Amino acid sequence: MITSNDTLTVSAWQDYFTLLKPRVMSLVVFTGLCGLLAAPGHIGFTLGFTAILCIAVGAGASGALNMYIEADSDALMVRTSKRPLPDGRVPRNEALAFAIGLAVASVIIMGLAVNLVAAGLLLGSILFYVFVYTVWLKRRTPQNIVIGGAAGAFPPVIGWAAVTGDTTLLPWLLFALIFLWTPPHFWAMALFSQTDYARAGIPMLPVVAGEKTTRNQIFYYSLAMVACSLAPWLFGYTSKLYGYSAVVLGGVFIGMAYTVWQDARAKAPKDLFKYSILYLFLLFAVLAADRVIINSSPLAGEDTKT
Questions:
Q1: 29, 56 in Cβ contact below 8 A?
Q2: Which has the closest alpha carbon to 67: 91, 37, 32, 44?
């Protein structure tokens, strides 16, 4: 039999989990895992699991700090008004302590259990997301997503560093890919959520520059992103498996971005937003599989181009 106290306990657990932005965390964890799998060398299951767990906890802590800072603007937006802080389900001071505790623990454990390079990158990603993106950029400039996108681009570099203890060109190409993916992904959402952003006083591109400019920028960034996605193949880091997949997936992305560019209806941005998530998952999955095959080849050396 479940008592009222049991119900409150379950509710509190769910609310604290929501603070971690689990949907965003899932993409962060996946790209971090792919960076780890793509790296040359070997990391044991326990250390690999620890590294990915630290990336997940660090990302969740960043999300919770973001919610703490933006609780007032979240309360003004239909899409975010029912989050735990604006809805009053979690006290602000408890949310702050929860987030800081997770952030500190994730970095310390990464440094002690894995290596200091991965820990430093994880710390940098948390600080960038909280202070550069959330505090400095988000309410000041429509370029918030462009510059702030760097925060979400760190996971594959961290995953790679967890294995190798350093970084090379390939993980930074993956960083650049996510960096260029972020604007069309978020601006597509902003096109059908611009009323919310305007109400909250957040200067997203459609709010301050209009829909036409936003649609243009989505298309231009999509072209740059797809070009960047081909770089690992063109530079010889992957096989045709990844290369052809990048061409096909990128071609679909550009086609949908072109539709957004030409079509003023709300459906096209929604379709692109949904596909952009699938695109990144599939592209990184193929890249990880491709690199695992290459790294397991008896001819493979330390991060040798093939």
A1: yes
A2: 91
- Among 21, 18, 130, CA closest to 84: 18
Task: Please tell me which of 13-22, 128-137, 163-172 the model is most confident about, judged by mean pLDDT.
Answer: 163-172
Tell me the one-letter amino acid at 36.
Answer: L
Domains of the chain: 10-295 (1.10.600)
First-last CA distance in the chain: 61
pLDDT score, position 128: 94
DSSP string covering 281-293:
HHHHHHHHHHHHH
**To 10 degrees, the CA torsion angle through 293, 299, 301, 306?**
-70
Output the six-digit token pair for 111. Answer: 């440094």
Phi, psi at 166, each rounded to 5°: -155, -175
**Residue 181 Cα to chain centre, angstroms:** 10
Q: What is the mean pLDDT of the chain?
A: 90
Cβ-contact 56, 25 below 8 angstroms: yes
Model's pTM, two decimal places? 0.90
CA distances to 34, 147, 204, 276 from 143, rounded to whole Å, are 28, 6, 8, 19
Buried b (16+ CB within 10 A) or exposed e, 202-217: bbbbbbeeebeebbeb
Question: How many angstroms separate the CA atoms of 99 and 219, rounded?
Answer: 36
Q: Per-residue DSSP letters for 26-84?
A: HHHHHHHHHHHHHSSS---HHHHHHHHHHHHHHHHHHHHHHHHHTHHHHTT-TTTTTST
Q: At residue 160, what is the residue type?
A: W
